[in-house]
């Protein structure tokens, strides 16, 4: 499994956890919004890896936006869900598997 695919899978799963309405909010608020900073760093790393292999970038970009705007209650929830879906689809994409 490539590093890019692994990172997309990890960030996709973490975004899916943060997209669970009450649980995600508790995780983010109880840790002083640090999970958003950590996710931002992970998404940037994933983006750099995807650029190197010329893979799909949309999931990482949506994830970066989700991390930047995740502190807004309902907007954050929608963005985390969207990022999780796009990242997981990209992680299992045949285009990325060939690299």
TrEMBL record:
Key word Membrane present: yes
Keywords associated with the record: Membrane, Transmembrane, Transmembrane helix
Keyword Transmembrane: yes
TM regions (residue ranges): 6-29, 36-55, 61-89
Superkingdom per UniProt: Bacteria
Name assigned to this protein: Membrane protein
Organism name: Terribacillus saccharophilus
């Amino acid at each position: 499994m490539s590093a890019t695919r692994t990172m997309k899978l990890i960030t996709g799963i973490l975004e899916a956890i943060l997209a669970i309405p009450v649980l995600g909010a508790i995780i983010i608020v109880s840790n002083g919004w640090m999970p958003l900073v950590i996710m931002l760093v992970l998404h940037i790393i994933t983006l750099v890896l995807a650029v190197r292999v010329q893979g799909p970038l949309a999931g990482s970009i949506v994830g970066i936006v989700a991390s930047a705007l995740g502190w807004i209650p309902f907007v954050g929830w929608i963005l985390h869900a969207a990022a999780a879906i796009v990242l997981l689809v990209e992680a299992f994409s045949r285009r990325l598997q060939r690299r």
